[in-house]
Amino acid sequence: MPAMTDPRDAAPLYRQALEKYAADNSIYHNLFEKGKPRPPILRICPRIQFLIDARNCKMMNLYGSKAEEILGYDRDASDRVEAIYTLGKTASRLALYIQKEQPDQALLLAEAAFSLGVKLCDERLRWREFDSGAELARDGAFIIKKLDPTRSAGRRYRRADGATFEGSLHPPSGPPSTSADQQVISRTSGDMFYIAKNAKERMWRIEAVLKLGRNKFNIGDFGRGADPRWSILTVKRMSNDATLDPAVRAAAKAATDLTLPEYNSIGG
């Protein structure tokens, strides 16, 4: 995407798309399942136009300044990430659907999906935000390659650990900080304290802090989890530490405020 040089923040455009999505999202779900009627292209494209308009923006601060919107444990927090992912996925599916009849429009949709994916990966407050961004970037790159073979040359991407890999955007498997497996919790609970305090990657710190919030009420397999009292003390201290990254503090506040009824409602 050599055209991603526009210095504007893409967030306002994406928020407009999200507002349209919130007003009527029924048409986005199961849109291309086998046996479903042909999707209403003309009805959807005006909403996806915001993504097309944002494709050349090189940065996005969608949740960076409003981290609390996606750093909670409630359903709304996860739904916000899923909403922007669904919009991007719709763009890539529409691109595949119309690629033969409208290749130029399909290319714009593919670029929109790729660009959004890159921006979600760049912001990556949550693992799910990064994971969904990587999928959208992969989908967009695949379609762009099909529609414009001149842009299909392999590229090298640098991973967080410094290694490089050719022509791929596959993320690592889901980390222990997001696992609900009691054996994983028992084996890695102590690691969460270290990651929460010392990880250089903000996304891992946030996920570890949120895991400590859940560990206030989860003792792991056969009681081999983290000390709930120390979990409570750690997240409370971090929520009051003005030197921390605001997003990490927002996660720590959410972890501090998590109640047992709320914990039970999310399934641990």
Describe what this molecule looks like in 3D:
- By secondary structure, the protein is mainly α.
- It contains ten helices and four strands.
- The protein has helices at residues 11-23, 41-53, 75-98, 103-123, 127-147, 182-198, 202-215, 228-239, 246-257, 260-266, and strands at 6-9, 57-59, 156-158, 164-166.
- The strands form two sheets. The chain has a two-stranded parallel ribbon.
- Strand 3 (156-158) and strand 4 form a beta hairpin.
- Helix 4 (103-123) packs antiparallel against helix 5.
- The model is unreliable at 160-174 (pLDDT under 50).
Q: Helix content range of the residues, please?
A: 55-70%
Largest sheet: 2 strands, parallel
Structural class: mainly alpha
User: What's the gyration radius in Å?
Assistant: 20 Å
Straight-line distance between termini = 41 Å
Number of strands: 4
Which runs of at least 5 residues are low in confidence (pLDDT < 50)? 160-174
SSE ordering = EHHEHHHEEHHHHH
* Percent of residues in beta strands: under 5%
Average pLDDT score? 81
Summarize this structure as a short list of keywords or feature phrases.
268 residues; mainly alpha; two-stranded antiparallel sheet; 10 helices; 4 strands; 57% helix
State the gist of this model.
By secondary structure, the chain is mostly helical. The chain has helices spanning 11-23, 41-53, 75-98, 103-123, 127-147, 182-198, 202-215, 228-239, 246-257, 260-266; strands at 6-9, 57-59, 156-158, 164-166. Strands 1-2 form a two-stranded parallel ribbon. Strands 3-4 form a two-stranded antiparallel sheet.
